[in-house]
Fold this sequence. Notes:
The structure holds 2 protein chains of 2 kinds.
Chain A: E1 9-13, E2 18-23, E3 31-38, E4 45-50, E5 53-56, E6 61-64, E7 70-75, E8 84-92, E9 109-114
Parallel strand pairs in A: 1-9
Antiparallel strand pairs in A: 2-7, 3-4, 3-8, 5-6, 6-7, 8-9
Chain B: E1 4-6, E2 10-13, E3 19-25, E4 31-38, E5 42-49, E6 56-57, E7 64-70, E8 73-78, E9 87-94, E10 105-106, E11 110-114
Parallel strand pairs in B: 2-11
Antiparallel strand pairs in B: 1-3, 3-8, 4-5, 4-9, 5-6, 7-8, 9-10, 9-11
Amino acid sequence: LAKTTQPISMDSYEGQEVNITCSHNNIATNDYITWYQQFPSQGPRFIIQGYKTKVTNEVASLFIPADRKSSTLSLPRVSLSDTAVYYCLVGARMSYGGATNKLIFGTGTLLAVQP
Amino acid sequence: DVKVTQSSRYLVKRTGEKVFLECVQDMDHENMFWYRQDPGLGLRLIYFSYDVKMKEKGDIPEGYSVSREKKERFSLILESASTNQTSMYLCASSSSPGDGLYGYTFGSGTRLTVV
């Protein structure tokens, strides 16, 4: 699984757009890019996943350049409740069983949203 | 609502005790995982299982064992608890094959303190 690098922390204010960039220079051809969100005292939860270009859902957008060596999670108009740790993960669709079948987390980015 | 349920939110155990952490999922998922989360280290995979009675070591299996006798239940066992096993423990599950990094569901965690 490819290693990822993210900023340790970011600060923002309510109503602003927040962009969190993740670097994954060794991404493989069949790897997907996935972001998870974790609130204090809870387990991580899936936010968004993409392979290339742009993906948007009701929560966030994910921008992936053509070389796929980085990606940017964009959170529009954040609120206090978006304060959380955001994890970027890179890996392939898993095969049936086996060692590829697992998530590898880094330390994530702590986003602190202030009033 | 689909769920991964961890039996305890908080546990305090003494050094040398045998500790059982229980996790149950109601989604008929094949794959189940145990992570521990520590400040500055992110989530680290301890063990995972892709089928009943099947298990594989993750990145930090030392001092732990697991049991999966039924599809819905995955237990983490600390054979002789030590203070360096004080941590937040997170259980997760996912279906197989084909989900990749998408579709992992986490429990709310068990905060274990070993004194």
